[in-house]
Write a structure and sequence with these properties.
Layout lengths: L3 H7 L2 H25 L4 H20 L3 H21 L1 H12 L13 H20 L4 E5 L6 H4 L3 E6 L2 H7 L10 E5 L2 E7 L15 H12 L3 E5 L6 E5 L2 E3 L4 H12 L17
Parallel strand pairs: 1-3
Antiparallel strand pairs: 1-5, 2-4, 3-4, 5-6, 6-7
Helix pairs in contact: 3-4, 6-8, 6-10
Length: 276
Amino acid sequence: MVGVLPQLKAMTALDIITSIIDIAIVAYVIYRLFILIRGTRAVQLIKGVIALVIATTVSGWLHLYTINWLMRQAQVMLLVALPIVFQPELRRALEHIGRGRLFARSFMFLGEEELKKVIEQVVRATELLAKNKTGALIVIERETGLKDIAETGTKIDGVVSAEFLVNIFVPKTPLHDGAVILRGDRIVAAGCFLPMTERQDLDRELGARHRSALGITEHSDALAVVVSEETGGISLANAGKLIRHLDLKTLAELLQANLIPRPITGAAPAGGAANG
């Protein structure tokens, strides 16, 4: 601290401004990288790495030489393992840099009124699909980008409307069995393949759509609306949890609670989900 103070006094106003800009850029890059991995399993892996570093430091302080040696060897192995474990996230980050998308705005850029219109169209489409017992899976992208998922389907880039969504899921059409990806007020792609959940505690009656809805919400912060082909039942997946047997009013309320920012009033956030 003693050596730092003279350096601070010697800094000019230009040096201070440059340092602030430098720190701000680094902080923003870290923030965008965090957005890329938020909602994925990479977050849990990072927590494990942090725990390993802490364990190594503490074991050194306590002179636990054997444990400290093992921790240090584990860190060396991580240098080789991490690029393999984080391969999907690293690839996505490099693709974003190559396409100039690393600093892109958040996908949830719509105003409240525009979001309400999108929710209204999704709920109306869900109503029509449920009445006809037409199976459907509608994924609403939020902060975590789903570009890799969208690329597994057919690119559309059309305005969200109930009629458009219903037509996509008409039985025996090419896009019927896949998922639709919504970004803002646009339908980005249809017929997309989603990662299925690996959970073993789910009801056996839950089919591929429900398991895919859980899978995509385990890997991202997206919301997934599911219409059962067998029963016409409506479900909503969020954060790896599934709320089933929803009516249209409750579905609209949950979508609004999770998609439309609310001022902080000290109350608990809405939209918690129950396991299926």
